[in-house]
Amino acid sequence: MRYLMMSKSADTAPDETLYVEMAKFVEEMTAAGVLLATGGLEPGGIRMTSSGDEITVTDGPFAEAKEAVVGFALVEVRSKEEAIELGRRFRKIVGDGESVIQQVFGP
Protein backbone atom coordinates (compact mmCIF):
# COMPACT_ATOMS: atom_id res chain seq x y z
CA MET A 1 0.00 0.00 0.00
CA ARG A 2 1.32 3.41 -0.92
CA TYR A 3 0.68 6.52 1.16
CA LEU A 4 1.44 10.17 0.51
CA MET A 5 2.52 11.82 3.74
CA MET A 6 2.35 15.61 3.64
CA SER A 7 3.65 18.10 6.17
CA LYS A 8 2.21 21.54 6.64
CA SER A 9 4.24 24.64 7.46
CA ALA A 10 5.42 25.05 11.06
CA ASP A 11 5.80 28.24 13.05
CA THR A 12 9.31 27.35 14.23
CA ALA A 13 12.49 27.48 12.19
CA PRO A 14 14.38 24.17 11.86
CA ASP A 15 17.64 23.77 13.73
CA GLU A 16 20.71 21.57 13.18
CA THR A 17 19.35 18.79 15.42
CA LEU A 18 16.23 18.52 13.26
CA TYR A 19 18.33 18.11 10.11
CA VAL A 20 20.46 15.39 11.72
CA GLU A 21 17.47 13.45 13.07
CA MET A 22 15.56 13.78 9.79
CA ALA A 23 18.57 12.55 7.80
CA LYS A 24 18.75 9.45 10.05
CA PHE A 25 15.01 8.83 9.61
CA VAL A 26 15.18 9.18 5.82
CA GLU A 27 18.25 6.94 5.66
CA GLU A 28 16.49 4.27 7.74
CA MET A 29 13.32 4.37 5.58
CA THR A 30 15.41 4.24 2.39
CA ALA A 31 17.43 1.25 3.63
CA ALA A 32 14.19 -0.56 4.55
CA GLY A 33 12.82 0.05 1.03
CA VAL A 34 9.84 1.97 2.43
CA LEU A 35 10.63 5.46 1.11
CA LEU A 36 9.81 5.90 -2.58
CA ALA A 37 10.21 9.67 -2.86
CA THR A 38 10.54 12.74 -0.67
CA GLY A 39 10.88 16.47 -1.18
CA GLY A 40 9.98 19.99 -0.28
CA LEU A 41 7.39 22.05 -2.12
CA GLU A 42 7.64 25.66 -3.22
CA PRO A 43 5.09 27.78 -1.35
CA GLY A 44 3.30 29.32 -4.33
CA GLY A 45 2.11 26.67 -6.69
CA ILE A 46 -0.23 26.97 -9.64
CA ARG A 47 -3.99 26.43 -9.45
CA MET A 48 -5.85 25.16 -12.49
CA THR A 49 -9.65 25.16 -12.62
CA SER A 50 -11.91 24.09 -15.42
CA SER A 51 -15.49 24.88 -16.27
CA GLY A 52 -16.73 23.43 -19.54
CA ASP A 53 -14.10 24.19 -22.17
CA GLU A 54 -12.51 27.02 -20.17
CA ILE A 55 -9.37 26.35 -18.13
CA THR A 56 -8.13 29.05 -15.77
CA VAL A 57 -4.53 29.12 -14.51
CA THR A 58 -3.72 31.17 -11.40
CA ASP A 59 -0.35 31.59 -9.67
CA GLY A 60 -0.28 31.06 -5.88
CA PRO A 61 0.12 31.30 -2.97
CA PHE A 62 -3.47 30.41 -2.05
CA ALA A 63 -3.68 29.30 1.58
CA GLU A 64 -2.57 30.79 4.83
CA ALA A 65 1.14 30.03 5.24
CA LYS A 66 0.41 27.72 8.20
CA GLU A 67 -1.99 25.67 6.03
CA ALA A 68 0.35 25.23 3.06
CA VAL A 69 1.85 21.80 2.39
CA VAL A 70 5.63 22.31 2.42
CA GLY A 71 6.97 18.77 2.15
CA PHE A 72 6.02 15.23 1.27
CA ALA A 73 7.11 11.62 1.44
CA LEU A 74 5.73 8.81 -0.70
CA VAL A 75 6.03 5.52 1.19
CA GLU A 76 5.12 1.92 0.50
CA VAL A 77 4.07 0.01 3.60
CA ARG A 78 2.04 -3.07 4.52
CA SER A 79 -0.80 -1.26 6.29
CA LYS A 80 -2.42 2.02 7.24
CA GLU A 81 -1.16 1.47 10.79
CA GLU A 82 2.43 1.29 9.54
CA ALA A 83 1.95 4.59 7.67
CA ILE A 84 0.55 6.16 10.84
CA GLU A 85 3.52 4.91 12.85
CA LEU A 86 5.92 6.51 10.33
CA GLY A 87 3.87 9.70 10.62
CA ARG A 88 4.17 9.59 14.42
CA ARG A 89 7.94 9.17 14.20
CA PHE A 90 8.13 12.10 11.75
CA ARG A 91 6.06 14.38 14.02
CA LYS A 92 8.28 13.51 17.01
CA ILE A 93 11.31 14.65 15.01
CA VAL A 94 9.85 17.89 13.64
CA GLY A 95 7.80 18.86 16.69
CA ASP A 96 4.52 20.73 16.79
CA GLY A 97 2.56 21.04 13.57
CA GLU A 98 0.28 19.13 11.27
CA SER A 99 0.67 16.34 8.74
CA VAL A 100 -1.81 14.65 6.41
CA ILE A 101 -1.55 11.03 5.27
CA GLN A 102 -3.54 9.79 2.28
CA GLN A 103 -3.54 6.40 0.60
CA VAL A 104 -2.46 6.48 -3.05
CA PHE A 105 -4.53 4.33 -5.42
CA GLY A 106 -3.53 3.11 -8.87
CA PRO A 107 -0.52 1.47 -10.43
Question: What does this 3D model show about the protein?
Answer:
- The chain is an alpha+beta fold and 107 residues long.
- It has a single domain, classed as Alpha-Beta Plaits, CATH 3.30.70.
- Helix content is 29%, strand content 36%.
- The strands form 2 sheets. A 4-stranded antiparallel beta sheet has the order 2-5-1-6. Strands 3-4 form a two-stranded antiparallel sheet.
- Strand 3 and strand 4 (54-59) form a beta hairpin.
- The longest helix has 16 residues, at 16-31.
- It is globular.
- The mean pLDDT is 90.
- Residues 1-89 form the YCII-related domain.
- This is YciI family protein.
- It holds the Pfam family YCII.
Distance between the termini: 11 Å
Give the number of domains. Answer: 1
Q: Any idea what the CATH superfamily is called?
A: Dimeric alpha+beta barrel
Q: Any idea of the CATH class?
A: Alpha Beta
Low-confidence stretches: none
Strand order, biggest sheet?
A: 2-5-1-6
**Total number of beta strands:** 6
The H-and-E topology, N to C, reads as EHEEEEHE
- Rg to the nearest angstrom? 16 Å
| Structure annotation, total helices | 2
What general form does the structure show?
A: globular
Percent of residues in beta strands:
35-45%
What can be said about the biggest beta sheet?
4 strands, antiparallel
Helix content: 25-40%
| Whole-number mean pLDDT | 90
Here the CATH topology equals Alpha-Beta Plaits
| CATH architecture annotation name | 2-Layer Sandwich
Helix/strand-derived class?
alpha+beta
